[in-house]
Design brief:
alpha+beta
């Protein structure tokens, strides 16, 4: 989860908050209501979850925390007491934003990665070299991942699917410890759906949704849009 969390924050940095127009998710765009548009029973039904689901809400519109927007994480324990999660994020589009984003050339990607690393230097002076190296790698991976998406038809105003592959070799084992050794290779899917002036992002991995992860995320997104 460490790599997945870092990668997600990097991807969400590319999203933004902004315009004042009203959209279908406007009332939920804060920490207090960040989970209120989600019908937990619907999620449990789609994922065939019998256990109780817990909700954790966060909100951030600061650069340091990655412009996450309104963040709601649902988690549950399986019969083996292993924790699973699915994450929902609402971000607002700025008036100048384009979704889906325009795909960049290799030269443009390198320039954007270098710019992100340079901007990051303003708040990383207290980190050690191994952490800074990991954060720079995360910038590289996140920007490249956001540029490598699949268009999804017939979902919201428009939609994309991003796939992130996490391997043990991506981690400094001294930082990640036994958690990574247990995880092995994990594929995380991020489904981004535009609805009016909001982007709804749903993220989960093959570890948490064991069967047909990407189709399951699409089904959940469609139900959320119908219910709101």
């Amino acid at each position: 989860m460490i790599k997945s969390k870092l990668a997600l924050i990097g991807l969400f940095t590319l999203s933004s908050c902004g315009v004042s127009s009203q959209g279908m998710f406007t009332d939920f765009y804060n920490k207090e209501k960040a989970c209120d548009y989600l019908n937990v029973d619907t999620v449990k039904s789609v994922l065939s979850i019998e256990q109780d689901i817990t909700k954790e809400a966060q909100f951030s519109d600061s650069f340091f925390n990655g412009y996450m927007g309104a963040w709601c994480e649902l988690s549950w324990n399986d019969k083996n007491d292993e924790t699973h999660t699915i994450t929902f994020i609402l971000t607002k589009l700025k008036s100048q934003d384009v979704f889906p984003p325009i795909k960049l050339s290799e030269k443009q990607l390198v320039s954007k990665i270098n710019q992100a690393n340079k901007s990051m230097q303003s708040y990383t002076s207290h980190y050690d070299k191994s952490m800074i190296k990991l954060m720079e790698k995360n910038n590289n991976d996140s920007i490249r991942n956001s540029n490598d998406y699949q268009l999804i038809d017939n979902l919201g105003d428009s939609a994309t699917l991003t796939k992130i592959v996490t391997n043990n070799d991506d981690f400094d084992q001294s930082m990640a410890g036994d958690l990574i050794k247990k995880q092995g290779t994990i594929i995380t899917y991020i489904l981004s759906v535009k609805s009016e002036d909001f982007i709804l992002k749903i993220s989960s991995s093959t570890k948490d949704i064991l069967i047909n992860t990407q189709e399951t995320l699409k089904q959940i997104a469609q139900l959320i849009l119908q219910e709101n």
